[in-house]
């Protein structure tokens, strides 16, 4: 059994390869090939544009793929959304397709775009959004550099953003969110009907989601004298409870816990003052709840 899996080419490519490496897979990508190498005999990878992956999964050209919910909806593809993979190019936040206009535009809401023109790569979703809003406007396809088309060529754009930084740098003002999107692992119905392929997809979900969960967490380990154990434990956040084990040296315990990396710089001095010694911070590749 070999699972044919499509991974996204373009802006998500590097983040996806990095995520797979954290999950335990080594991927080699050649700039001249769409067939990445992977150190797993049960996987056969394809490097495809995320816009195209839903169609290829639906047709059975590949068994499964990693793409955005936006492209699943844009293609109207019939497939199974197996799991959300909440990662992206720069942040762990969901991305948004937003309706934006030039900063000095008189447009204040979608209603003001009646009879006007909008450029976007997400044509069908934008048309559906306008229909729900009761607005008739001309929606034209734009592939790349959409921000520069307003106001000279169109009145508004619908563009993907994580932080809004690029839109602000082009003096664009967001007036509404058309849809939020996250990265998904999707699979064809035929793939999930095959027991071996289904098990492989499920295994991938466990490993990839474990790698995502570990991205902002670390292991903190320390030694604590028995008399100060309760006070130290009271300072520790954890997924459940910290692991406490008795050391060979009488009167001492070892504590191990997983905490948010952002909290460590404040936590370690407190642990030290509370009596912890030999404090170690270790990175994580995966956390499996």
Task: Tell me about this structure.
Helices cover 29% and strands 32% of the residues. It is of the alpha/beta class and 289 residues long. The protein has 3 domains: 3-92 and 183-214, 3-Layer(aba) Sandwich (D-Maltodextrin-Binding Protein, domain 2); 95-180, Periplasmic binding protein-like II (D-Maltodextrin-Binding Protein, domain 2, 3-Layer(aba) Sandwich); 217-283, Alpha-Beta Plaits. The chain has a 5-stranded mixed β-sheet, with helices on both faces. It has a 5-stranded mixed β-sheet with strand order 9-8-10-7-11. The longest helix is centred in the C-terminal third of the chain and has 20 residues, at 195-214. The mean pLDDT is 93.
Short description:
This protein is an alpha/beta fold. It is built from nine helices and 16 strands. Helix 1 crosses helix 7 (195-214).
Q: Oligomerization state of this entry?
A: single chain
CATH fold assignment of the largest domain: D-Maltodextrin-Binding Protein, domain 2
Identify the overall geometry. Answer: globular
**Mean pLDDT across all amino acids:** 93
Helix content: 25-40%
- For the termini, the CA-CA separation is 28 Å
The side-by-side strand order for the widest beta sheet comes to: 4-1-5-12-6
Order of helices and strands: EHEEEHEHEEEHEEHEEHHEHEEHE
């Amino acid at each position: 059994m070999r699972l044919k899996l499509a991974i996204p080419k373009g802006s998500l490519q590097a983040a996806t390869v990095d995520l797979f490496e954290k999950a335990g897979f080594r991927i080699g990508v050649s700039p001249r090939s769409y067939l990445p190498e992977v150190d797993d005999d049960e996987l056969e990878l394809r490097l495809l544009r995320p816009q195209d992956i839903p169609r290829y999964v639906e047709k059975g050209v590949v068994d499964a793929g990693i793409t955005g919910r936006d492209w699943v909806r844009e293609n109207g593809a019939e497939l199974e959304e197996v799991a959300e993979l909440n990662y992206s190019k720069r942040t762990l936040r969901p991305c948004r397709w937003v309706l934006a206009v030039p900063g000095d535009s008189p447009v204040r809401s979608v209603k003001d775009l009646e009879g006007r023109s909008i450029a976007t790569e997400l044509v069908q979703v934008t048309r559906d959004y306008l229909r729900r809003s009761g607005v008739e406007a001309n929606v034209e396809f734009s592939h790349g550099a959409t921000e520069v088309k307003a106001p000279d060529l169109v009145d508004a754009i619908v563009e993907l953003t994580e932080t809004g930084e690029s839109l602000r740098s082009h003096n664009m003002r967001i007036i509404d969110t058309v849809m939020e999107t996250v990265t998904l692992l999707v699979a064809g119905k035929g793939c999930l009907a095959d027991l071996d392929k289904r098990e492989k997809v499920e295994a991938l979900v466990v490993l990839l989601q474990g790698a995502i969960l570990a991205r902002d967490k670390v292991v903190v380990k320390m030694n604590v004298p028995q008399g100060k154990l309760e006070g130290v434990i009271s300072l520790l956040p954890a997924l459940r409870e910290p692991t406490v084990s008795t050391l060979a040296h009488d009167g001492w315990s070892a504590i191990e816990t997983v905490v948010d990396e952002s909290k460590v710089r404040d936590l370690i001095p407190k642990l030290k003052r509370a009596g912890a010694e030999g404090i170690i911070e270790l990175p994580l590749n995966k956390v499996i709840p």
